[in-house]
Amino acid sequence: MFGSLTQKFQDLALKLSGNKTLTEENISEAVTQVRLALLDADVSYGVVSNFIKKVKEKAVGTEKLKGVKAGDQFISIVHNELIHLMGESESKVQLKHTPTKIILCGLQGSGKTTHAAKLAKYFKDKYERKCLIVALDLARPAAVQQLKVLGASIGVDVFALEGETNPVKVAKQALKQEGYDLILFDTAGRLHIDESLMKELRAVKDLIEPHEVIFIANAASGQDAVKTAKEFDEQIGITGSILTMLDGTTRAGAAISIYEVTKKPLLFEGVGEKVGDLQEFNPHSMADRILGMGDLINLMKKAESEINEEESQKLEEKFRKATFTYDDYLKQMAAIKRMGPLKGILKMLPGIGEGMFNLEESEKDFSKMEAIILSMTKRERFGLVELIPSRKRRVAKGSGTSMDDVNRLIKGFKQLKMVAKGMPGLKKKLGNSGDLDQLSKKFSGLF
Predict the structure, then answer these.
(1) pLDDT at position 28, please?
(2) Cβ atoms within 10 Å, residue 263
(3) How far apart are CA 351 and CA 130, in angstroms?
(4) Which of 30, 104, 279, 358 measures 20 to 30 Å from 193, CA to CA?
(5) Which is it for the CA torsion 415, 420, 425, 427, positive or negative?
(6) How far apart are CA 111 and CA 135, in angstroms?
(7) Is residue 289 included in any domain, yes or no?
(8) How far apart (Å, rounded) are the C-alpha atoms in residues 389 and 235?
(9) What secondary structure does DSSP assign to 387-400, as a single string?
(10) Gyration radius (Cα) of the chain, Å
(11) How many CB atoms lie within 10 A of CB 54?
């Protein structure tokens, strides 16, 4: 996600790894590299300056930890300060009121309408809230129709007044609707901030008296998104933000800076184009991703929501002994498929880089892998005989695939078993990580 910044931090850790201890000299050189990396990632100069000052103070005053490399120790300091910079802990939308009223605001093109639907689906699925989305974006052509289509796709009601051009009048009628636990107001945006936009938003806010005013920020716009968030906060008062387009190759500037600049929490992050591609923002998770440490926090959340506890417990013993079979592999691959593209899931594991695995992630390729395993004999599927070339040719012919496909599956299976065998060492490296321990149990047989 933050390829360039992540690579620079990893290069820095590698460079420092040759030092036995942190000294003022190598700390000074390291913080210079961190400063340049953050500025290049479009983090604001003021935020970078304060961040560097804190990192240097912590690093200079840190005692050498026995058995810990200087590079790891320095990156640990950076990691902790990144967490602090982004808000320390998860902030949640409070649902104490019935109905809870939420206004979504931001510039045109930031993703407000899409994220109105994403939020409605999130609250409907996770908290079983009956949601209503109100169409107040009356300036953009087809915005109301877009909202209706999205609402229909997730089974959520959309309120709109045909022919009405005044959002205050629409909001007034929407507030009369009964039987809803949560009402989301999708407001209009502009290509830039102007007085007419702010006047309209203030009028809508005064009428609705919302419990939350959430700013939708496009992460791809970097510091422009942060500056705009600050201006919206100063003029209408926001309670939090959502970062969109975090699934692309965007720089980390907005993610790192927006909390520090607005002092309002990041609540969610949009991680894809689908209506279900929304997750809670977690500063620890984001710091891990920025530094190339995987994303165990969100991986655990996905696992808990998609993997059957009873099934995972049955395979836990096999996982610990790395004795699972192609048959187990097939069952657990189906569980991973429910969590999203396989490549994306594997990238959430610490220490796994781009291109390490050749496992395909599409529906077509998953069906191909399934066909290959189902074309094996029981003895082959349970690993009782070696898949020699003649057997591979038979399996390829029986599954309608090629020898390359069969070899790719076998290679991926062996690589995943290596990951399983390496999990104890990974746990030792990361320390007593509750997330990692739970992940090992939840993902029994996945690897």
Answers:
(1) 87
(2) 10
(3) 41
(4) 279
(5) positive
(6) 14
(7) no
(8) 70
(9) --HHHHHHHHHHHT
(10) 25
(11) 15
* Residue 7 main-chain phi, psi, to 5 deg: -65, -40
Q: Model confidence over 394-404: pLDDT tens digits?
A: 999 999 999 99
Tell which residue, 391, 388, 393, 415, has the closest CA to residue 404.
393
- Is residue 91 assigned to a domain? no
CATH code (residue 179): 3.40.50.300
Q: Could you tell me the pTM of the whole model?
A: 0.76
Vertex 231, ends 228 and 233: CA angle to 5°?
110
Q: Count of domains in the chain? A: 3
Q: Which residues of 102-116 are buried (b: 16+ CB within 10 A; e: fewer)?
A: bbbbbbeebbbbbbb
- Given this model, what pLDDT does residue 187 score? 95
Block residue for tokens 């906060």? 233
Which residue type is seen at 150? L
Q: Which residue, 293, 278, 272, 311, is CA-closest to 435?
A: 293
- Residue 159 pLDDT: 97
Spatial distance between the Cα atoms of 54 and 48, rounded to a whole number of angstroms: 10
**Does any domain span residue 198?**
yes
- Shared-domain flag, residues 176 and 256: yes
Q: The domain containing residue 69 runs over which residues?
A: 3-85
Same domain, 305 and 274: no
CA 164 to chain centre: 38
DSSP one-letter code for 29: H
pLDDT for 173: 96
Kindly tell me the sign of the dihedral angle through the C-alpha atoms of 47, 54, 71, 350.
Answer: negative
- The parts of the chain modelled with pLDDT lower than 50 are 359-360, 426-433, 436, 440, 442-447
Helices (H), 1-64: 3-16, 24-40, 45-60
